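Technical annex, item 7. During the second reporting period the consortium partners agreed on a shared format for inverse folding records so that results from different sites could be compared directly. Each record opens with the tokenized structure and is followed by the designed sequence. A conforming record, contributed by the partner at site C, is shown below for reference.
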């Protein structure tokens, strides 16, 4: 049985965003734009305020996580740069940037390091949760775990991204593997798909099929 998704620390993230907004610059972004961790040679934090955004692994473009609510990105990269992930804007979104140097000054001045630690702990827990969804799991289990994620998304988001695209971006499973499982679940009336492969409804999934 997979781990439960970690609880998002809304209050800590909210305080960090509010503290940084007055010193941030709104960006002009378009869907599919990729954001890197530096701007004009200086490390940046990104304040994601509205829209949809994905975190991608640099080596192969695997989607590690998606964001649909306000969030702050770049904390780990500012403190311990690895450059192994980038951000991708998925729809028209509102995103601001602030230099990491300025952000650190604000965290010092406003005593926000506890909120920074809580937010980083959430990111860390999410990575463990994601690994539990896919590492050493059967193909069927991996697909079911991601179906559980999809059904919890807002309907507007579910109608924009097909189940096949969502799962393949996050697992790199073959198209045929995913489609075979979806077909079997649909035929057994465990889920309902709109033309184009968009998830409408889903019942409790069986342990195997």
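Designed sequence (site C submission):
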């Amino acid at each position: 049985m997979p781990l439960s998704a970690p609880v998002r620390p809304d209050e800590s993230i909210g305080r960090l965003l509010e503290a940084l907004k007055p010193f941030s610059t709104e960006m002009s972004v378009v869907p599919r734009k990729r954001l890197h961790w530096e701007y004009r040679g200086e490390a940046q934090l990104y304040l994601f305020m509205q829209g949809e955004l994905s975190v991608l692994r640099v080596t192969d473009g695997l989607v590690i996580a998606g964001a649909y609510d306000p969030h702050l990105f770049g904390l780990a990269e500012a403190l311990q740069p690895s450059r192994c992930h980038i951000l991708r804007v998925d729809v028209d979104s509102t995103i601001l940037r602030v230099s990491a140097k300025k952000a650190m000054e604000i965290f010092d001045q406003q005593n926000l390091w506890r909120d920074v630690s809580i937010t980083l702990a959430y990111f860390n827990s999410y990575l463990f949760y994601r690994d539990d969804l896919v590492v050493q799991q059967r193909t069927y289990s991996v697909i079911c775990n991601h179906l559980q994620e999809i059904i919890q998304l807002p309907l507007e988001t579910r109608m924009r991204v097909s189940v096949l695209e969502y799962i393949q971006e996050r697992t790199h499973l073959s198209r045929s593997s995913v489609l075979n499982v979806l077909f079997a679940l649909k035929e057994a009336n465990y889920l309902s798909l709109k033309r184009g492969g968009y998830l409408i409804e889903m019942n409790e999934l069986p342990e195997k099929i």
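Helices lie at 10-20, 75-79, 100-109, 113-134, 139-151, 155-158, 163-171, 175-187. The chain has a mean pLDDT of 93. All partners now use this format for quarterly exchanges.
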